[in-house]
Automatic annotation (TrEMBL):
It is found in: Cell membrane. It is a multi-pass membrane protein. This is Sodium ion-translocating decarboxylase, beta subunit. The lineage of its organism: Bacteria, Thermotogati, Synergistota, Synergistia, Synergistales. GO terms for molecular function: lyase activity. Its main location: membrane. Its EC number is 4.1.1.3. NCBIfam families: Na_pump_decarbB (TIGR01109).
């Protein structure tokens, strides 16, 4: 009974707040089905690491000495020391992606690049709000709309806010169906949203599909060496998918492997959600900056498409610019749903998917470029 009372009396107000945060993440995962494979372990882990005298983090115990906690051990070995978990997850992501719609319309690469605009807006905002450069760069990568990239950059930059960054990145990815329509309507007219686009893709040969991940790895490795791990593992996963001789491994990478790594990543990242580091004004600022990043990603892609239309005879629907973020396939589905709502029978899905997968590449390249620029400056 004394031990029970000792645990209850040791709970702080900040730890109680983290129980509420953890509960909210679990609720979003189960009730709303927002990114459940990550938000559920992240929420449950947030509760675990904030229990007084929790055995999941390292503790000094009378008569026993230092005890090793499993979540802290996972964090120190698979994220802090090697960044292994977020990098390995890219194998599964690459195996899931069909780059065919992008290869059929290479011009869609431009939309993926334009939709990274929110990264630079977020970095600027974070700097103006007083964050140092390494933290501002880490916060800005929330605008990549790619959870593993956000986690990896924050860890490489040794950011003090990796927990808040992970929560913001994955939460806003889950909220793309809410955030993007509002941002799209803010900068487009009804007439623009009704623009129809014919889909007449060229054929994409098997050889092209196989050579694409190899060439991308070489090119990105030369342009942005810091992103080689991200792009390389993403392209390796895609090569496993497209080679045609590793079908069983491809299915495993897409399903069991990705799910296992995501579960481990969620519960491991929760180590950085300890109350003393998470419950602070800075966390709220990071969440607000992350929201701004997603909004300006969307606006950047849409405005780029509108500018492009000034020079095109066959106009593009500017909504496909919004699909240039890395949140695959949610963003492309949002664009298609909006197109169908504005005008029945308007099909933009394949154009949006092409822009969406280009955003996957652009986001990891942007992450690598930010790492390179910031490390050179520091």
């Amino acid at each position: 009974m004394n031990l029970l009372l000792e645990g209850l009396m040791a709970v702080t107000a900040k730890q109680a707040a983290m129980y509420a945060v953890g509960g909210a993440l679990i609720w979003l995962a189960i009730k709303k089905e927002y990114e459940p494979t990550l938000l559920l372990p992240l929420g449950f882990g947030a509760i675990l690491v904030n229990l007084p005298l929790s055995g999941v983090v390292n503790q000094s115990m009378a008569g026993i000495g230092e005890t090793a906690g499993i979540i802290q051990w996972l964090f120190e070995t698979t994220i802090s020391a090697s960044e292994a978990l977020p990098i390995l997850l890219f194998i599964g992501i690459g195996a899931m992606i069909d780059f065919g719609p992008l290869l059929a319309q290479p011009v869609l690469f431009l939309f993926g690049a334009a939709a990274q605009f929110g990264i630079f807006v977020a970095i600027s905002l974070a700097t103006l709000l007083g964050f140092d450069l390494k933290d501002a760069a880490s916060i800005g990568i929330i605008g990549a709309a790619d959870g593993p990239t956000s986690i990896l950059v924050a860890q490489i930059m040794r950011s003090n806010y990796i927990g808040a960054i992970a929560v913001a990145a994955y939460s806003y990815m889950a909220l793309v169906p809410i955030i993007q329509p509002l941002a799209i309507r803010l900068v487009t007219t009804k007439k623009e949203r009704r623009i129809r686009m014919a889909y007449t893709p060229g054929s994409v040969t098997r050889r092209t599909r196989i050579l694409f991940p190899i060439f991308v790895t070489f090119i990105v490795g030369l342009i942005a060496p810091a992103s080689v791990a991200l792009v390389g593992f993403l392209m390796f996963g895609n090569l496993v998918r497209e080679c045609g001789v590793l079908n069983t491994l491809s299915r495993t990478a897409q399903d069991e492997f990705s799910n296992l790594i995501t579960l481990l990543l969620g519960i491991t990242i929760s180590f950085s959600m300890k109350a003393e580091a998470f419950v602070r004004t800075d966390t709220l600022l990071i969440l607000l900056i992350g929201l701004a990043a997603f909004v300006f990603d969307t606006i950047g892609g849409v405005v780029f498409a509108k500018v492009l239309n000034l020079f095109l005879k066959e106009k593009v629907n500017p909504m496909i610019g919004a699909a240039g973020i890395s949140a695959f396939p949610m963003s492309s589905r949002v664009v298609q749903r909006m197109a169908a709502e504005e005008e029945k029978g308007n099909i933009l899905l394949m154009h949006a998917v092409g822009a969406n997968v280009s955003g996957q590449i652009a986001s990891v390249v942007a992450g690598g470029l930010v790492i390179s620029l910031v490390t050179q400056y520091l």
